[in-house]
Amino acid sequence: MKNTSKLPNVASSIFSVMAQMAHTYDAINLSQGFPGFDTDPKLHALVTEAMASGYNQYAPMHGIYSLREQIALKMNTLYGSAYDPENEVTVTVGATQALYTAISAFVHQDDEVIVLKPAYDSYEPAILVNGGKVVPIQLEAPDYKVNWKVVKEAITPATKMLIINTPHNPTGTVLTKGDMLTLEKILENTDIILLSDEVYEHIVFDGVKHESVAKYPRLAERAFITASFGKTFHTTGWRTGYAVAPKYLMKEFQKVHEFSVFSVHHPTQKAFAQYLKTPRHYLALGDFYQRKRDLFLDLIKESRFNMTPSSGTYFQLLDYSEITTENDVLFAERLVKEKGIASIPTSVFNLDQEDFKMLRFCFAKTDETLEQAAEILNAI
Fold first, then answer.
1. pLDDT above 80: residue 133
2. Is the pLDDT of residue 37 over 90?
3. Which helix (H) or strand (E) segment is 187 a member of?
4. Is 41 inside any structural domain?
5. What is the pTM of this model?
6. Where does the Aminotransferase class I/classII large domain start and stop, copy by copy (predicted)?
7. Do 277 and 305 fall within a single domain?
8. Which pLDDT score is estimated for 33?
9. Domain range for residue 111?
């Protein structure tokens, strides 16, 4: 049978490639963004209790009300928003599904979507498979600040959506209040939908505050915000996240959600609904990961890598330009094969795969793993 691929130029994810290499060469895996430690036993117990109590059939399409209620309460308490749990919250199969569904619901053939690169690798395939056109804007190393003048100049009558990510994967940067106010001015008097990927919202460091789109009413009125319980509660394999948006946008989102996913794992929703009632479960996350970041950076401070401490997420970029001039993909592969440590080369996320000689390392690991990794990095 003959067929024409909708994504002819999309190869295997770099995360899959590096994870497989780490497995093949028995390397320390600091590539994929998953925590290397277990979930809170209390959360395990809540899921088990929910299953034993009979919550094993379909959940409501947009999520059980008690969980949507807790999500809205968390958002509204933290950011001064006013999301309605009945009509403005949807529970999703992770944040990636939320992102894909938002794009699918609104991007038509030849619509333009502005993407700030480096960018999480699910954005562009979702745009392309829906017939949209990616308008990439490259953020420059080493600070990766957004040049909003360039963003404004990229807007055309065909611009349907703008995607932002804060705290930012893979760079660890965060958008500021000034960034949000500037974006507010750029988008006013347009019909552009803002898609804000905020999966690392609770992982910010050094007193920095997460500037959620939800804090800015003139942005929130045109925006989807996506988030992840997997990132927040060390449960990436449970594939549970959510999206919030004004009712008029969420109505269209749920049309796609209903006929692609319908509903999300019921016992897990029951567990998260209960777990969210204790805010320290997510409010303490920044301090927890800052200790991990600080330990990792202290352990490698005598290495030949250069670094700017990450401001958020559980990723740290390391500049290897004083070690070798080789391409970052080749260097990352060599580190796995010869040194036994896996990272993510960041050129794969950049426009035209521009190589800034940066590797991304995940520090969401046990102290023992970080110590072993540091020993290898210090010897390079």
1. yes
2. no
3. helix 177-187
4. no
5. 0.96
6. 26-376
7. no
8. 82
9. 57-281
